[in-house]
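FW: tagging you since you asked about this chain on Friday. Here's the raw sequence from the shared folder, copied in full. Didn't touch anything.
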Amino acid sequence: MEKPIFNKKVKVQKYPGKGGWTYVVIACDAKPNSPWVKVKGKVNGAEIEQYKIASMKNGLFMLPLKAELRKKQNIKEGDTVDICLYLDESHLIVPEEILECLEDFPEALAFFEKMTESNKKYYIDWVAEAKNIDTKVNRINKMIDRLLEGKRMYDI
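HL: got it, structure written out here
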């Protein structure tokens, strides 16, 4: 059975100022190949996957707690949460509805495949956050247009 890289209760912190991240600081043995390490696990019993912890220093990492997770688990600054994390070696999962649309535009698909996993995930998450089908279709179309122009999600 896989051994967790972190399994403890920690206090939730919030970076001061407007738009400040809500996060926890953890100490673990992850060996980062980049400033970010992909993890999966549980936060207060809620499954998380394809999350990333940011390397700080001295074996410390920051795990940002996304708004969706905080709302679902009613997590606020100052709360203590139970965190259990494992290294996540899985590849990014591209939803079938996005892949099918990209296959109709080989140039967009080729650019998408050349992007980093993080850049792909920005697009995937943006489409997934759509609340209704019309918005989702509109976002997939905008994504394809941007990819055809050779633009990542946050390129101007």
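FW: The chain has a mean pLDDT of 91.
HL: agreed, and Residues 133-148 form the longest helix (16 residues).
FW: great, closing this out.
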